[in-house]
Write a structure and sequence with these properties.
mainly alpha, Arc Repressor Mutant, subunit A, Four Helix Bundle (Hemerythrin (Met), subunit A), 11 helices, 3 strands, Putative GntR-family transcriptional regulator, DNA binding
């Protein structure tokens, strides 16, 4: 990788991370010069990074004005919610009874870490923990295609959760209680109960 490629990749990752973690909020206009100074590169790699991010749908470039950070439409949020419900419910229904107790113990460890993050009002850490928590339901099913589809949604999930940071903190006790319920329903093989709890959990987290 030559220096120009490395600079473009660094610019891409820095700007992308800023969008996903809420540093560059939806509706913000990003300028090449300001980004270049912030990242410590020239405008050329920033321009390449912005083009890549536009191709991915995170921004819209307006010549001589800047790059507008895109949010998620109500339709996109609803589609994300529906797809996550399908993937996680399908994954949970395929988990072998022989590994449920071991998996439940692993998930309870994650819940303890989530409690600590919320107590410290560390939204960034909580979001990464909860993404990993929900990924486990898909991963444990042992279906690589389901897991690949799930992982493709991770950035959109992360972006949306950062947008909902204050909302997540406001309902932190409910979130933890719902996670505990999901684990117990998984452990006992209550797939119908798991699906309904997950449906309400996603609806309450994603609602405007």
């Amino acid at each position: 990788m030559d220096a120009s490629t490395s600079a473009a990749e660094r610019a891409y990752r820095t700007i992308r991370d800023g969008i996903l973690n809420g540093a560059h909020k939806a509706g913000a206009m990003l300028g090449e010069e300001g980004l270049a100074q912030e990242i410590g590169v020239s405008r050329t790699p920033v321009r390449a990074a912005l083009g890549r991010l536009q191709d991915e749908g995170w921004i819209v470039i307006y010549p001589k004005r800047g790059a507008l950070v895109q949010g998620l439409s109500e339709r996109a949020i609803a589609d994300l919610q529906d797809t996550r419900l399908i993937l996680e419910a399908a994954g949970a229904s395929r988990i072998s009874a022989t590994v449920r107790d071991q998996l439940a113990a692993r998930l309870h460890t994650s819940i303890d870490a989530q409690r600590d993050a919320l107590a410290e009002r560390d939204v960034r850490r909580f979001i990464e923990l909860t993404i990993g928590f929900h990924r486990t339901f898909v991963e444990a099913a042992g279906n690589d295609v389901l897991l690949e589809l799930n992982d493709r949604l991770a950035d959109r999930q992360r972006f949306l959760l950062f947008c909902k940071g204050d909302h997540l903190l406001a309902r932190c006790d409910d979130i933890i209680a719902e996670h505990v319920t999901l684990v117990e329903q998984l452990r006992t093989g209550d797939t119908d109960g798991f699906t309904e709890t997950l449906r309400k959990h996603l609806d309450d987290n994603y609602k405007p």
